[in-house]
Structures are given as structure tokens and as C-alpha cells.
Amino acid sequence: MRWIENVERFVFGAECLGCGKPSGKLDPWLCPECAKELERESTVHVMPGLDAYSLYPMRPLTRRLVHALKYKGISGMATYLVRHCSAVRCGAVGEDLSMLPKPLYFVPVPLHKARYRERGYNQAEKIAAALSLVFGGKVCRWLRRRTFVVSQTKLSREDRERNVAYAFECTLKRAPSTGTVVIVDDVFTTGATTSACLAALGRDFPLPVKVCTLLYDEPASAAADFAADNQMEWDVK
Ligand SMILES: [Zn+2]
How far does residue 33's CA lie from ligand 1's centre (Å)? Predict the structure, then answer.
């Protein structure tokens, strides 16, 4: 945040990231009304699938907050959302996580290099760090994005889809003998990203693998987001 914005926040009260209205009672991102709404959202039970957890449903408010995390440089939003959810839901997700074999290895989905340069951080790493703080465990960068040097126009749609399925590779030489891997991403969409992560770990990976995301989105509306996120893969030449 630039210093001038800090001064503005001090003098006028900053804008709520939820409704956009200035408020002197931010917490520090939401006004009391939006904070209440977030509290309600965090009690909604979301089921992205077996072995997958999402902390919030995709709603206008939660979408705006994750957008702030990804595109406005507000990296502290990851901790805010994880902490808020774990407090409000009395740790329902935490309870599930507590049943899993320990330690928990939170493995963030890697960001494309160009996106990383643009953003300065990987939002999935921030979320993984928040999860490991709140629920106990460690952040492990065991996945790497493969770089494809191909022309997008030369690939058929099927080829492109197949390549997305192999978008990641595992950097881990030898898997630990105990514990649970939790793959961490911002949004659970079609599950294509997490499937690609599972493919990278390999069929014979010895530990149980779970998925945890901030948001769960219905697949139909998510297809466009996924395409936008992965488009950079094909812009190499
Ligand atoms: Zn508000």
C-alpha cells in the first residue's frame, strides 16, 4: 500500500472492500455490515467433492475479497479469510483436518512465472501459510509448473486440454512416510487444476491427498475463470 493511501485511510476512513463505502470501523478490510455478511457466508456448507474442502461459497462478497487477494496486492486477505472462517465455523474444517494423519503438508498450486512476476507473490502460497498457521502443518513447495514451448495455434483443443492435465511436475525426490498432503488453491472450480496436481504426484504417491481452497464455484461459471488462469501456458511463442 502506498503511504498516501495510508494517510487517506487515516483522515477519511478507508473504503470497505466489500461494499466500497468509506467506513471508520473497518476490521481492517470490511465494514461491520459486510463483516456480518461474511460471517453468514462462512456458515454455508460447501461440498466441492470427496477429499476436498472449501471455506466459503463463491458469492459477490467472497469473490471481491479473493479478487483483492489476487489482483490488488492485498496478500493479508488470505490470513484474514482463513482466520475468520476458522473462528466463525468453530473450526469445522479444522475438525476434519484434525482427523487426518499428521503432519499436514500444505502444497500450494504453483503460479505461472509471468503471473508471479506481475503479482509478486503466489496467492496459493499465502493461503497455504495461513492454513498451516491456523490448523498446524507446514508449507511445502512440491509442485512446479511445466513450461510448454509450443505455438498455441498448432495445438488442437484436445491436445491443449491434455497438456493442461500435465501442467505440473513434482519436485519431491522421496515422499515422507507419514502425514497428509493438502493441495491448496484459491478457488475450486472444475477440479481440473487439482486433477493436474494429483497427476503430478503420481498414482503411486504413498500419502493421502486432500484439497483445500478458499472458495467453491459452480463448474459452469468457473470454466471461464479456469481458461483465463491457464491461458498464459500457451502464450510462450
Ligand atoms: Zn461494507
Answer: 6
pTM for the whole thing? Answer: 0.84
Q: Where exactly are the structural domains of the chain?
A: 1-41, 47-234
Cα–ligand 1 centroid distance for 18 (angstroms) = 5
Ligand 1: centre distance to CA 232 (Å): 34
The answer, yes or no, to whether residue 1 has pLDDT greater than 60, is: no
Residue of 137, 109, 138 whose CA lies nearest to 125: 109
Cell, residue 103: 503432519
At residue 14 the predicted structure's pLDDT band, cuts being 50, 70 and 90, is confident
Going from the Cα of 24 to the center of ligand 1, the distance in angstroms, rounded, reads 11
Tell me how far the alpha carbon of residue 71 lies from the centroid of ligand 1, in angstroms: 19
**C-alpha distance from residue 20 to each of 23, 29, 65, 114 (Å):** 9, 10, 12, 30
Which of 65-79, 117-131, 211-225 shows the lowest mean pLDDT across its residues? 211-225
Class of domain 47-234: alpha beta
